[in-house]
């Protein structure tokens, strides 16, 4: 009887290899945050996720953990007043879009994602494109990348992903086997891997790359009605990408080439310009699609959801001081104005906590008082104290003794809301599950078939170079994903790996190299052999 009682009251099974959180609690699900139903939204009591992501946000001091290497510029966004052929007010009441010709100041920060602050700008990596619009309703941050999708669809996995992509904690060298170990065991990443290992993984510069909000957001109109929306920045300068050979040649001459390109273009009056497009979808589950519209590893097909132009952005002023403006600039996916809203996209919900939490740690509790981050309108809060506070934010108070609300003694009052509140109905069990429609390879196959021949050649060459140095179990998993995506894709990857295996006898190959640079392991020996002797002095 006692044995039965012990079995009935058994807690989570734990052994010497079991993961726990910092409280010592066994982690039973490290893949999914807790959501209402498997599509979300997320709930704030995700303790394991909050502990994990908030610690991750504080790992590096003071450099950004991601997007450390960056360049920036000022400019303006000009609205068209329409979304395609229709008044934009049909879909959103956000003031920034309403009037044709209305200009809103912006600051844009471009960046690489994984590599450090002084890393070369030719490395294989997604590129960040974060836009801060100083609207009359306050700041709106549209934070995104040059690739329209992402490696993962659940924020729970973000710290692990970055850990795998960043340098090995022992050698401090990026290791392609660690990269593919994570990706092979996270098959939702295969579409992004297809893009990153193609020439799209090395944009020629910041001016000639696309930008995307990546996540799914909502637009809300004056009646409180919402639609799902995706954002796309299209460069008027055209799009250009580099092969590995071209990137290495440029890196040998200038590892700041993209920063210089942006600065020089603006300095010479050749102002870069992007057009902003949106894709719009009704706010429901869309069972007719073979993917979930909230899945950020998927592209919305343009033929089903047309790109609608809503405005243009011009960058016409360089920073006056790099540190004050570019380095201290701080963005967050949660920084939205009235008429814009969140979807239940699990990555968006996780990023919304992480980004602003990171800024409060990295720049400080009062990072929004730094001029580059401050709203270009009145700010009136009851917030007090914190490191480096230099503005009381109470100049308009009738009674400066009152730093709380509600009050009858003359403090701030709530603003009156004019547009109808958007209040979607949410019901479902709290679960930690993946979304239902999670085909991980179909769109990767479509992307492969869309590539030009030279892009396919570069993709296969880059993948073979790195995957060939991985263990067989990782190779097998990556080949299985390629086979599933497209027959040619799988066949060419398999043939390439077989050929590489014949040539890899004892050539000193190592997986410790920048992604896509298959001969990088030869560099230390080459440096010693080519180095010229010198006498001590």
Description:
- 28% of the residues lie in helices and 16% in strands.
- Helix 3 packs antiparallel against helix 4 and helix 11 packs across helix 13.
- The chain is globular, with a radius of gyration of 25 Å.
| The named CATH superfamily of the domain at 70-180 and 203-373 | Catalase core domain
SS field, number of helical segments: 14
Distance between the termini: 83 Å
Large-scale geometry: globular
Strand content: 15-25%
In terms of per-residue confidence, which ranges show pLDDT below 50 for 5 or more consecutive residues? 1-6
**CATH T-level fold name of the domain at 70-180 and 203-373:** Catalase HpII,  Chain A, domain 1
- What is the CATH level 1 assignment of the domain at 70-180 and 203-373? Mainly Beta
Number of strands: 14
């Amino acid at each position: 009887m006692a044995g039965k009682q012990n079995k009935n009251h058994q807690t989570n099974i734990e052994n010497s290899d079991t993961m726990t959180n910092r409280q010592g609690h066994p982690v039973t699900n490290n893949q999914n945050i807790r959501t209402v139903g498997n599509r979300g939204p997320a709930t704030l009591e995700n303790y394991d996720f909050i502990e994990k992501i908030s610690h991750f946000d504080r790992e590096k001091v003071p450099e950004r953990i991601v997007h450390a290497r960056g360049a920036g510029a000022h400019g303006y966004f000009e609205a068209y007043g329409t979304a395609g052929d229709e008044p934009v007010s049909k879909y959103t009441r956000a003031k920034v879009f309403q009037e044709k010709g209305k200009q809103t100041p912006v600051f844009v920060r471009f960046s690489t994602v994984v590599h450090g602050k002084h890393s070369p700008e030719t490395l294989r990596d997604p590129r960040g494109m974060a836009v801060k619009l100083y609207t009359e309703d306050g700041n709106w941050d549209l934070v995104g990348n040059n690739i329209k999708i992402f490696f993962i669809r659940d924020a729970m996995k973000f710290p692990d992903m970055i850990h795998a992509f960043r340098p090995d904690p022992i050698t401090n060298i990026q290791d392609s086997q660690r990269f593919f170990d994570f990706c092979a065991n996270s098959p939702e990443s295969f579409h992004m891997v297809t893009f990153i290992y193609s020439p799209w993984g090395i944009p020629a510069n910041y001016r000639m790359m696309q930008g995307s909000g990546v996540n799914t957001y909502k637009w809300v109109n004056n009646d409180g009605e919402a639609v799902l929306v995706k954002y796309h920045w299209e460069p008027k300068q055209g799009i250009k990408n580099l092969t590995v050979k071209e990137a290495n040649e440029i890196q040998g001459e200038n590892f700041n080439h993209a920063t210089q390109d942006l600065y020089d273009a603006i300095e010479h009056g050749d102002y870069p310009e992007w057009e902003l497009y949106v894709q719009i979808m009704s706010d429901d589950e869309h069972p007719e699609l073979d993917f979930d519209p909230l899945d950020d590893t998927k592209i919305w097909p343009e033929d089903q959801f047309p790109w609608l132009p809503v405005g243009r952005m011009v960058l016409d002023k360089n920073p006056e001081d790099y540190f004050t403006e570019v380095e201290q600039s701080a963005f967050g996916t949660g920084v939205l104005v009235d008429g814009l809203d969140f979807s239940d996209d699990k990555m968006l919900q996780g990023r919304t906590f992480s980004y602003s939490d990171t800024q409060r740690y990295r720049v400080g509790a009062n990072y929004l008082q730094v001029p580059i981050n401050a709203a270009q309108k009145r700010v009136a809060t009851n917030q007090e104290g914190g490191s480096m506070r230099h503005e009381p934010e109470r100049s308009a108070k009738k009674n400066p003794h009152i730093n709380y609300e509600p009050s009858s003694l003359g403090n701030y009052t709530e603003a009156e809301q004019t547009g109808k509140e958007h209040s979607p109905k949410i019901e479902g069990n709290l679960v930690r599950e993946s979304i239902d429609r999670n085909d991980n390879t179909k769109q990767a196959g479509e992307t492969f078939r869309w590539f030009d021949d030279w892009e396919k050649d570069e993709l296969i060459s880059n993948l073979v170079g790195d995957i060939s140095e991985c263990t067989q179990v990782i190779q097998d998993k990556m080949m299985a994903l390629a086979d599933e995506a497209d027959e040619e894709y799988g066949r060419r990857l398999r043939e390439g790996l077989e050929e590489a295996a014949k040539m890899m006898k004892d050539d000193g190959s190592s997986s410790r190299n920048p992604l896509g640079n298959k001969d990088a392991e030869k560099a230390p020996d080459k440096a010693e052999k080519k180095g010229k002797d010198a006498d001590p002095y």
